[in-house]
Structures are given as structure tokens and as C-alpha cells.
């Protein structure tokens, strides 16, 4: 099935190159290709965002299949452009709730991997694919029988906040404490942390999946005015308006993250 939607030029270019390389390798096992992440959520930023995909296979991949896919991804990386990152699995796997990360073929930061755990196999990606996935080729997501489960999504998101994000905050606080007076902080880290937590808080409140930008804008509407300045700073950093921020802004961002996590996980 050919897609009837348009993508940003850099996305179109990489997707077309990927399809050419698949054809050259003779990979009929790939029966569907879907874009998720920032492309699906209308938050793709040329020059900054990766292209996130889910590829559906008609059977479990063999070692020969994986070798061919690795050549495809090596070629894409050598050609330049946004990283084409995602994973390969059967439609049967999409019909099961991902209770834990899985070992399957995937690409991360432009490098193809096998025999490793893929952290993108999770209920967030399942929901994004089910509700927002953009079809490049293959049947639409509505026909894939995706196991989109709200209880699993909530459990996963709460665990992510309590384990990954609280640890991230603690490490960031230690890094700030080591800075000399007058030093600044990475604006990208501010956006990553503040908006990453904000989008999860949104998901726990609404059961929807939004982009980082969407999470920040929801937080402006849902959270007290005290946090609005740092939320606006994070949104501006995400948009590429600055590369560095004062340490005080980063500290306020970490304080907001602790507030949002406590609010989202209460009860």
C-alpha cells in the first residue's frame, strides 16, 4: 500500500533510500513500514530529530535476513541524514502486550544491532503506532491487531518516572553541584528532561501520546504558573532557540521535574 501522506523532505529522502536498499537486498520479508515518534506526532525538527520506525516482518528473521538489514542500515548511515532508528518484528508480536523489553533486530543512533535488548519495545510505542503511526507501506495500523493496553501503559510510565527519570534528576543535580560560579548548562538537557517528564505526565492524565512540544504545552495549561517560565525556556530550547542556559534555569527545571513526577505518581 502506498502512503497518501507527505513527510518533511529529509524524511522522504531517507525513507526512499531505505526502500531502494531493501529492494536491492531482496527483502520481501519486510511487509510493512510505519513511522512513529516525532514524525508521527508532528514534532520532527530537521537537523535535530531522528526518524523512528516500526517494521513488520512476515516471519521471524534469519541470520541471513539480519545480515541484509545490517547492510541496509550501514548504507543509510554512510549516506548521512537523520538517523533511521527502529525495530523489526512480526505482526504476531504486535498482538501481544510488551510486558518487558525484547531482544530483536533494531537500529539505534544509526547502528544496526542484533542479540541486544531493544528498549523501544514498550507500551508507549505500541500506543503511538496504534493511534498515530504513519504508514509508509503495508496495511494501516488499524488492521494490525496491536495490543494497545491502557493498564500496561500506565504501569510502564509510572515505572519510567520512578526509575529512569528520578535517577536522571539525581545525576543532573550532582553535575550542577560540581559547576563553578558563572558556568552555564546544556539547553538540550533542559528540554530533554523537562519536556520528557511533561509528556509522560500528560499520558498519565489523558492516556494520550504527545510529542515533547505537546507535553510542554499541556504542562503550561495543567501546572501552576510558578513553573511556566522554565517550561517556556524548555520549549524554546527544544525549538533550537538557544544552546546554553544559566545554571539557575536548569536547577528550576529539575525542581519542576520532581514536582511533575510527584503529581503524576500520587496515589
TrEMBL record:
Annotated Adenylyltransferase AadA C-terminal domain residues: 193-242
Catalytic activity annotation: streptomycin + ATP = 3''-O-adenylylstreptomycin + diphosphate
Signal peptide range in chain numbering: none
A Pfam family this chain is assigned to: AadA_C
Source organism per UniProt: Methylobacterium goesingense
Lineage, top ranks: Bacteria, Pseudomonadati, Pseudomonadota, Alphaproteobacteria, Hyphomicrobiales
Keyword Transferase in record: yes
Transferase keyword on record: yes
Keywords assigned: Transferase
Protein name (Swiss-Prot/TrEMBL): Aminoglycoside (3'') (9) adenylyltransferase
